[in-house]
From TrEMBL:
It comes from Dokdonia donghaensis DSW-1. This is UDP-3-O-acylglucosamine N-acyltransferase. The gene is lpxD. CDD domains: LbH_LpxD. Keywords: Acyltransferase, Lipid A biosynthesis, Lipid biosynthesis, Lipid metabolism, Repeat, Transferase. It catalyses: a UDP-3-O-[(3R)-3-hydroxyacyl]-alpha-D-glucosamine + a (3R)-hydroxyacyl-[ACP] = a UDP-2-N,3-O-bis[(3R)-3-hydroxyacyl]-alpha-D-glucosamine + holo-[ACP] + H(+).
């Protein structure tokens, strides 16, 4: 699809300097711009590229002042980075704006859906499924019995939503993600063999949640596993049964959260973090990558290490960790001097 400078300026509420009818059909980094591409300049470190880029259109801030000739048509806006992000969002909406029901697919007689549905080939809608308006379901998606999905959701190819899950509005579930699989519940007997504990609960995902590719969210043993409003989950995260994640918390890839742990609001959790079960983690907690959490965490704590401890203490200790061989040598030297003295 192609857009003119005039159309883009209209979307961004910007002003055009140059040819208003020049067209672009792709996006590019400013240092890699080619004819027919759109780029932006937000970081002053990249200013030199505005004079050499071959991009046809560049989004710049109102405060940008050129000190030599600029080839691209400029679109001036209040904030170049925010405007480019807005344009990316608009581009995604246009790109994902599919509709209609492809064949073959299966829709139960008791399932219902709203206006603007896109249902890709080989998808499955089980009994009593309820789907809102403008939902996009890509090929090979499985939606089990009694699932409810709100408006404006996107389920990418190959994602799976098990029975009884409840999904809010504007939720994005990426390929390979699984919502509502059984929690890891087994009890050992006297012979060391394991019997499965039935997982009879469900998963509730509130509005504006993003779930990355390959992420798994287990159903509760009893009650619900809950992902609150605005949570952002990266790829390949494991969330166990009866976990609750507070609103607007963001979690990076390969983090594992064990059963029944409660995580607060506005937390930032780095990649490969391991969190034990039955813990309470407060609001606005920050956990650095590869940390191991085995205790309750108060509001606002910043943690690193495995097992984790206070971030500032960890940084001070790390200086000594690096110098440990030298310290050992010094101690050995002092002991030798003392013994020889």
């Amino acid at each position: 699809m192609k857009f003119t400078a005039t159309q883009i300026a209209g979307i961004l509420e910007g002003t055009v300097e140059g040819n208003p009818e020049v067209e672009v059909s792709k996006l590019a980094k400013i240092e890699e711009g080619t004819p027919g591409s759109l780029t932006f300049l937000a970081n002053p470190k990249y200013t030199s590229y505005i004079y050499s880029t071959e991009a046809s259109i560049a989004i710049v801030g109102n405060d940008f002042v050129a000190d030599q000739e600029v080839k691209p048509t400029l679109i001036r806006v209040e904030d170049a980075y925010k405007s480019f992000s807005k344009l990316l969002e608009y581009y995604n909406q246009v790109k994902l704006n599919k509709s209609g029901i492809e064949q073959p697919c299966f829709i139960s007689d008791t399932a219902s859906y709203g206006e603007g549905l896109y249902l890709g080939a080989f998808s499955y809608l089980g009994d009593n499924v309820r789907i809102g308006d403008n939902v996009k379901i890509y090929p090979n998606v499985y939606i089990g019995d009694n699932v409810t999905i709100g408006d404006n959701c996107v389920l990418f190819a190959g994602s799976k939503v098990y029975s009884d899950s409840v999904i809010g509005n504007t939720v994005y579930i990426h390929s390979g993600a699984i919502v509502g699989a059984d929690g890891f519940g087994f009890t050992p007997n006297e012979n060391g063999e394991y019997s499965k504990v039935p997982q009879t609960g469900n998963v509730i995902i509130e509005d504006h949640v993003d779930i990355g590719a390959g992420t798994t969210i287990d159903r509760a043993t009893l009650g619900s596993t809950i992902i609150r409003k605005g949570v952002k989950l990266d790829n390949q995260i494991q969330i166990a049964h009866n976990v609750e994640i507070g609103a607007h918390t963001a979690i990076a890839a390969q983090t594992g959260i064990a059963g029944s742990t409660k995580i607060g609001k506005h937390c930032l959790i780095g990649g490969q973090v391991g969190i034990s079960g039955h813990l309470t983690i407060g609001d606005k907690v920050r956990i650095q990558a590869q940390s191991g959490i085995g205790r309750n965490i108060k509001d606002g704590e910043v943690l690193q290490g495995s097992p984790s401890f206070n971030y500032a203490d960890w940084n001070r200790s790390y200086v000594h960790f690096k110098n440990l061989p030298k310290i050992v040598q010094a101690v050995n030297k002092l002991e030798k001097q003392q013994n020889n003295g």
